Q: What sequence folds into this?
């Protein structure tokens, strides 16, 4: 992503920008009402190191294996970057040869692949303590050259010994399989699964992801609060999941009302009927008593995360929407104040690009923007946990 080169010096900002760009390409993850900081805070507490564009867990090993193979090559940073890209493209073909059909990053794009697996998993590798080098991919390649030039060779050292002291990757990384780039699969070995679990226990000991990974839990459910073993979660995780469930349920109504209003402006009767029905179903599912007793002060304390700044305007919108819901959820689709609240929020966020004021933007709308419940990256976490559970 050459367009992000200007923030290459700041890894945190780079990752944040990549998340924003990715969200614009994922229909149901669009953050039309500015709830992304809350969503990501909760997701990073529950499932740290995951992202919505991750596919399969073994990429957490593929990337360091491929990058390690470059560390002893005497190349300039731009040459190493190109060689890394070549290796990642070869990995696509190796996975196809191995019989994999789903989850391959670049399966269709091939040599035209823009978002490489390394960029997708780079932040997660750091969060799980697999990557010890704190910096961007470009700075990693620059560091390889710099450290090689700074190192005074000792004739008694082997090449492997010189580079083992560079601390780019954690000790104990499982060995790269022979002929990895000829044929491979997403199936983890037991040793590889054990390594990943050890990393999670070491770096993310209090996360729900770690708890589930330790127990090799493979559960099929759409949302984490529907998990069959939810009552066995640690107490802190249970509380966070409860808060996530409540937030997702309540704010889903605001997203549906947003889509309903746009459907009305487009005068698309089928869309209007669909969203009216969905709002009715949403209202029927709301536990009004629980919502009326919901403490937002407790919620904000629970979801607070150092990597995300939840702005005062976002907090006010959530509080005002909660008031709308608590005062009469069954009338919300017809409520002028509820409609105005949603419209004002989107307009403030998008300014001249608001679909309420810019007809050209509205006409490009395809009928759904962020219309599904927030799931806080459970889909990706579930996939990773399944890969751990089926290691052999």
A:
């Amino acid at each position: 992503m050459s367009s992000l080169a200007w923030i290459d010096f700041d890894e945190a900002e780079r990752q944040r920008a990549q998340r924003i760009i990715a969200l614009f390409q994922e229909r149901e993850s669009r953050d039309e009402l500015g709830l992304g900081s809350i969503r990501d805070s909760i997701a990073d507490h529950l499932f740290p190191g995951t992202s919505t564009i991750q596919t399969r867990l073994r990429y957490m090993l593929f990337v360091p294996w491929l990058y390690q193979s470059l560390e002893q090559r005497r190349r300039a940073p731009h040459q190493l970057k190109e060689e890394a890209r070549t290796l990642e493209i070869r990995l696509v073909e190796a996975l196809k040869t191995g019989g994999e059909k789903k989850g391959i990053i670049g399966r269709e794009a091939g040599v035209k692949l823009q978002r490489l697996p390394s960029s997708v998993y780079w932040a997660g590798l750091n969060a799980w303590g697999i990557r010890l080098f704190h910096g961007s991919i470009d700075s990693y390649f620059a560091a390889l050259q710099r450290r090689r030039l700074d190192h005074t060779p000792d004739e008694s050292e082997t090449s492997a010994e010189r580079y083992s002291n560079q601390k780019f990757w954690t000790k104990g990384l499982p060995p790269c399989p022979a002929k990895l780039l000829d044929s491979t699969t997403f199936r983890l070995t037991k040793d590889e699964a054990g390594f990943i679990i050890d990393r999670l226990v070491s770096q993310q000991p209090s996360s729900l992801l770690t708890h589930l990974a330790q127990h090799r839990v493979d559960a099929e459910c759409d949302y984490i609060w529907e998990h069959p073993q939810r009552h066995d979660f640690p107490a802190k995780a249970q509380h966070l999941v409860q808060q996530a469930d409540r937030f997702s349920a309540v704010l889903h109504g605001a997203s549906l009302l947003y889509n309903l209003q746009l459907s009305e402006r487009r005068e698309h009767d089928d869309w209007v009927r669909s969203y009216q029905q969905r709002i009715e179903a949403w209202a029927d599912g709301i536990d009004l008593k629980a919502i009326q007793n919901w403490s937002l002060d407790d919620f904000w304390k629970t979801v607070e995360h150092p990597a995300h700044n939840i702005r005062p305007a976002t907090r006010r919108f959530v509080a005002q929407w909660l008031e709308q819901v608590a005062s009469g959820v069954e009338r919300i689709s017809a409520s002028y104040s509820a409609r105005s609240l949603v419209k004002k929020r989107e307009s403030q966020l998008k300014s001249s690009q608001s679909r309420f004021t810019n007809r050209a933007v509205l006409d490009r709308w395809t009928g759904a923007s962020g219309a599904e419940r927030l799931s806080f990256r459970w889909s990706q976490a579930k996939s990773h946990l399944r890969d751990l559970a089926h290691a052999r």
In short: The two ends are 36 Å apart (CA to CA). Confidence is low (pLDDT under 50) at residues 1-9, 18-28, 154-165. Residues 235-266 form the longest helix (32 residues). The CA atoms of residues 12 and 76 lie 25 Å apart.
